[in-house]
Design a protein that fits this description.
heterodimer, A: about 260 residues, alpha/beta, six-stranded mixed sheet, four-stranded antiparallel sheet, 9 helices, 12 strands, about 35% helix, globular, B: about 350 residues, mainly alpha, ABC transporter involved in vitamin B12 uptake, BtuC, two-stranded antiparallel ribbon, 14 helices, 4 strands
């Protein structure tokens, strides 16, 4: 067995008296689509924020291709090829589409020894990015607040997938979306998968993961309670694990851990 | 039927033109107001549109422009700095005492700028701890001026120094030194705000801090930097004001913070962050000073000037917040309609 593509090993995180994650280990064996499901306060978002560098874990490590990485910052995670699409898209309403896409990694040029934003390059490359992804926005020089919700999501998707990402994390990508927009998100996920990009989806909607995913990881109260391949389970079993926090196969069968 | 459709068509175009006009009026209201006021004053007073008077107003506006550039950055991050007038007082006192003590100006001026920046950085640091900027800088407003009073024991010190004399009363090519300094500061400020990461990150933080954070921007570092910048610029203004009056006084810059904030908001910089304009701040500073100057020339009781400035400020904030939001939403609705 080769080294897994992404592995989070023994991750723990406390916020004051609250234990958000205790000794969580998840692996993404190869570029595929993993659905991370669980009730509210299961720790899914915290786990993914750690993977994307927005939160530092108290303990645990992250390995990419078997190599430990120790970024302490979202920019470090993005340089390692890990991008996250936040539920609220994390866009600045007053900045333009292009400025949002390049926020934190703006192209610059030298002007009299000073680093100056290369706005022309930013706008051209942002427009190219939309073209390549088949996503549509009215103009990359428009302020994000002038866009509709679906267009804003297109900006967030372009930002996360346009920079040679190796893993894209999506936090509730289909919440509050209409049917056509949900279809668009599913297409995006399948396109990423075809291109060998890993995808982790946090979702309440199990049907999203059944339709495009490869595997489930079920969490409850800061722990991983079970794992399933999508073609080896059905909705009822996942819901049961989410609610009870127990893996029914572990209780009915003898321990088969090292099989 | 045909006539029906065509009327609807014309009415729609007309309405859309009305919208564009309204958007234009709200966006550029301050510029229109300044031009209207200047035209009206040119008719009302023969002294208004003279070179001497214009230069005079530019000299008065200079300290507000200088600090206003810093305030524009602070407001871009959705902050506010009420301590700038007090920094001016502290700087003024230090200039007076140190010039009298014989400290060379080449040493004194940089040290003063560093002190201003440090006061600002301290403000910024406390803001990053989670205390509202309004409270932090209000506390600094009283305590920094207090330090000025303690050091000077309340007395003003005359400043006799050729460099200060040039800063206060000199000039180049017939333009006074304070205004030259103000314009240089404004140009650098414009460049920083619109062409560098520094300006972009300030706007991003003010626009939506959480988005800036998850994108990995150094929020705390940026906040400390914008307050430090404003502190340093308040020190520059303090030097200019002390030089103009040839006097180092703990009473310098009283109420200056309000004029600076008024100029910045008048110019169109949002009180809630994310939207800022240096050019607007310069125009705002000029509007406040031209209004004061015009009323003076008309022989209006100077106390009324304060009243009028307050009224202008309220109208400007109203345009800046409520009206702006409505009109921009309106404009957006129009664009979406056009798309369909």
């Amino acid at each position: 067995m080769s080294v897994p593509f992404i592995e989070m090993r023994g991750v723990s995180k406390r916020f004051g008296a609250v234990t958000a994650l205790s000794d969580v280990t998840i692996t993404l064996p190869k570029a595929g689509v993993l659905g991370l499901v669980g009730d509210n306060a299961a720790g899914k978002s915290t786990l993914m924020k750690i993977l994307s560098g927005a939160i530092l874990p108290d303990r645990g490590e992250i390995l990419i291709d078997g190599m430990p990485v120790d970024y302490v910052h979202p920019i470090g995670a993005r340089e390692a090829g890990i991008e996250m699409i936040y539920q609220d898209f994390a866009l600045v309403p007053e900045l333009t589409v292009a400025q949002n896409i390049f926020l934190g990694r703006e192209p610059t040029r030298s002007f009299a020894g000073l680093k100056v934003l290369d706005r022309a390059a930013m706008n051209t490359r942002a427009a190219e990015m939309f073209g390549a992804l088949g996503l549509r926005v009215p103009a990359v020089t428009l302020e994000v607040q002038a866009l509709s919700g679906g267009q804003q999501q297109a900006v967030a998707i372009a930002r996360a997938t346009g920079f040679n990402a190796r893993l894209v994390i999506m936090d509730e990508p289909t919440a509050n979306l209409g049917a056509p927009a949900i279809e668009k998100v599913r297409e995006t996920i399948l396109r990423l998968k075809r291109n060998g990009v890993g995808v982790i989806i946090i979702s309440h909607r199990l049907e999203d993961i059944f339709s495009v995913g490869d595997a489930f990881v079920i969490m409850k109260q800061g722990r991983v309670v079970g794992r399933r391949a999508v073609d080896d389970t059905e909705s009822g079993e996942i819901v049961e694990m989410i609610v009870t926090g127990r893996d029914p196969r572990e209780t009915t069968q003898a321990p088969t851990e090292d099989a | 039927m045909v006539s029906d459709a065509s009327t609807t068509g014309t009415r729609r175009t007309f309405r859309m033109d009305g919208r564009k006009l309204a958007v234009f009026a709200v966006r550029y209201g301050i510029f229109i107001a300044l031009i209207l006021w200047m035209v009206a004053m040119s008719f009302a007073s023969e002294y208004f549109l003279t070179w001497t008077n214009l230069l005079n107003v530019s000299r008065q506006a200079a300290p507000i422009i200088i600090i206003g550039v810093g305030m524009t950055f602070v407001m871009a991050t959705a902050g506010i700095d009420l301590s700038v007038g007090s920094v001016v007082a502290l700087v003024s006192v230090l200039c007076g005492i140190w010039v009298a003590a014989g400290v060379p100006v080449v040493v004194l001026l940089p040290v003063i700028l560093v002190i201003g920046a440090l006061v600002g950085a301290l403000n910024g640091y406390i803001v990053t701890l989670g205390v509202p900027a309004f409270v932090v800088t209000l506390a600094a407003l009283t305590s920094v001026r207090g330090v000025g009073f303690v050091i000077s024991d309340g007395y003003a010190t005359p400043i006799n120094d050729p460099v200060f004399a040039w800063i206060g009363r000199g000039g180049l090519f017939g333009i006074n030194a304070p205004f030259i300094i103000a314009i240089v500061v404004a140009i650098i400020g414009w460049f920083l705000l619109n062409r560098t990461r520094f300006g972009l990150y300030a706007l991003a933080i003010g626009g939506r801090e959480e988005a800036a954070r998850v994108m990995g921007l150094g929020i705390n570092r940026m906040k400390i930097a914008v307050y430090a910048l404003t502190g340093a610029l308040a020190a520059v203004a303090g030097i200019v004001i002390s030089a103009r009056l040839s006097n180092g006084s703990p009473n310098a810059g009283v109420m200056l913070e309000l004029e600076v904030i008024a100029a910045t908001v008048l110019g169109g910089t949002s009180l809630f962050g994310g939207r800022a304009t240096i050019f607007g701040t310069v125009v705002g500073a000029f509007l406040i000073n031209f209004v004061r100057n015009g009323l003076n020339l008309l022989g209006v009781n100077p106390y009324w000037v304060q009243v009028v400035t307050g009224v202008i400020l309220v109208i400007a904030v109203l345009m800046n917040t409520v009206l702006n939001r409505k009109v921009e939403a309106w404009a957006r609705a129009t664009t979406e309609e056009e798309e369909k």
